[in-house]
Amino acid sequence: MSGKTIEALDLAALLCSRLCHDLISPVGAIVNGLEVLAEENDAETKTFALDLIKKSTRTASAKLQFCRIAFGAAGSAGAQIDLTETETVARGFIEDEKTKLTWNLPRAMLPKNRVKLLLNMLLIALQSIPRGGTLTVDGTGSGDTMGFKVTAAGTNAKIPQAIPELLTAKLNGEAVDAHRIQPFYTGLLAQDCGLTVAMTTEGDAVAVTAH
Fold this sequence. Notes:
- This protein is of the alpha+beta class.
- The protein is 49% helix and 18% strand.
- It is built from six helices and seven strands.
- Helix 1 runs antiparallel to helix 2, helix 2 packs antiparallel against helix 3 and helix 4 runs antiparallel to helix 6.
- The longest helix is centred in the N-terminal third of the chain and has 32 residues.
């Protein structure tokens, strides 16, 4: 797949592949846990399997709720999404023992594509701190024209290779697979919102901005 655009069917297929990739791990762990419960008689092993199932179910649910908004239709054309709900979904997806989220946005309703852009920016920022850290979300402007800044701070935070170029939503002859489609899609969302999205370093941190 090359050229400056992606056909609609190819874009849909690649996003679906990305979603399946995100869900395979927790769903597979649930299946493994159920198999252990069915086959093992040891009480300690069964307890471990049940804990695995509970944890993996929570993870799968959080990922589905996040991806429903980040990649899905999330309502009818022209729909708006509550930033309070968005914060809850983002925390469920991002926060764990290694990574925390600081949310500095006001309570507001924003057009769905602007919210989808924000969630995709969070995904990109998360990739810059593989060892964990803090993601800080700030807004620029207000109302339907609000822009965003996501700052990622953590040990050895750095910009992943190729992502800045993909954020322009121009392929320049490069192939895009399921691992690279998400930053490209983020660039498309930014264009739809009349914004420009970029990824830069700020001291020891990495910033993803849309303005």
